[in-house]
Fold this protein.
Amino acid sequence: MSGTIFRGPLDGGLLIAPLDEFTAVYHRASGITHLLTEPAPQILAVLGEGASSLDGLLERLGRDYDLDDGTREALAARLEELVEAGLIERA
Amino acid sequence: MDDIELNQDPVATAETDTGVPSRRRVLALGAVTAGMVVSIRPALAQTAGSVLNCEIPVPDPGRAGSYIDADGGVVPARTKGAFPPSTRAFKGEEVKRAMASGSTLPGTDSDRSRAYVKYIRRLQRGQGGFTCFASLQMPRG
């Protein structure tokens, strides 16, 4: 998985609205709305700046946040959830 | 409604007036018990009958003959480790059952079924079977 690059939707592909505990994300391509909890919005925000590897993403998140359980395995599991939801893809 | 840019992180690190980040926020990457994503899909079909009888080809006719890899991606025919296309379209009811219970799609083993279901979950508007797939997501009643 270390060489895998993850990519978010193209510019303008998402409409994002923070709603207190949740962040609502409308995915234009599929017409599906997702309600996200942390750390999904933060991961999407980083991938919105450009595609990234797992390690790159972990490093980037670590710059902005104190990561709790900030392991590659934990992040890989979160990325898998986002891939399953169709919000990101493996490039 | 105004578009909100992706990079406007709603929970960006707080900064003080001096521009120096104050105490950094903790972001937990570990197990999320309730799931991190809840998806709300459009209910396009009006009757249960149409939902259950609609069909989802794997892959869609525009990519007929292509294989499906384990992640549900569409890959060139005969790609190693990928699965051949389904010989027939699946009924909405079959897909709904496979998604709800984890049972396999008819005529497939578990690995192949899992790949096909991932493909179906990734369907987007304009692709064959999307409307059927989206219709399956209506609240259970």
In short: The CA atoms of residues 49 and 93 of chain B lie 9 Å apart. Residues 48-136 of chain B form one domain. The radius of gyration of chain B is 20 Å. The longest strand of chain B covers residues 37-40.
